[in-house]
Task: inverse folding
């Protein structure tokens, strides 16, 4: 039997995606352990979620670093220390430059069907507002291997939802998040089983 997959989870906000992983692991539905949670903000509510479950937390405030490179080096050093098979970006709003040894070992989830509505500054409600403004018939979420550009890199899987005539950014966000809670763990399972088909 394989050892559980070791995950490092990077957050900047509420930690709802982190909580989904904590719950699934706790119920024995995901063969993984979370070795460390890294937050780019000292005031991120997700820190408290992690601590409540006894997870190691490291806070590396982005604003304390002069560049994305120096910030990324600090984050990478923490991940090296705790060890991780896979790094999950879970609402991590700072650009994380990926060291070559972690190539194809960093996943991100985006609340739209990439390549639509991605890129710098496109996160949270901004994405759902853009989907509605564009008049798209459907939206959803995309799990992809991250590279050194925002919302870029090989797609692992997508899940779709219809955009309804009376949708608001809030209602669309809620429906998309439900799919995120299915898609991201499924991508991690595929990685754990060496079944990641990239398209």
Result:
């Amino acid at each position: 039997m394989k050892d559980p997959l070791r995950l490092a989870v990077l957050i900047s906000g509420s930690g709802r995606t982190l909580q989904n992983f904590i719950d699934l692991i706790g119920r024995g539905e995901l063969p993984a352990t979370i070795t460390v949670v890294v937050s780019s903000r000292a005031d991120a509510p997700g820190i408290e979620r992690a601590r409540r479950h006894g997870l190691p937390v490291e806070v590396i405030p982005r604003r304390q670093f002069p560049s994305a490179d120096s910030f990324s080096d600090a984050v990478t050093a923490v991940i090296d220390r705790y060890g991780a098979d896979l790094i999950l970006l879970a609402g991590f709003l700072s650009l994380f430059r990926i060291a070559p040894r972690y190539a194809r070992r960093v996943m991100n989830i985006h609340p739209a069907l990439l390549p639509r509505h991605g890129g710098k500054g496109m996160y949270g409600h901004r994405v759902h507002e853009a989907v509605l403004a564009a008049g798209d018939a459907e939206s959803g979420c995309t799990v992809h291997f991250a590279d050194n550009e925002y919302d870029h890199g090989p797609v692992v899987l997508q899940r779709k939802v219809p955009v309804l005539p009376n949708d608001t950014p809030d209602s669309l966000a809620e429906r998309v998040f439900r799919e995120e809670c299915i898609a991201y763990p499924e991508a991690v399972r595929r990685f754990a089983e060496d079944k990641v088909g990239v398209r």
About this structure: The chain has one domain: 5-192. The two ends are 29 Å apart (CA to CA).
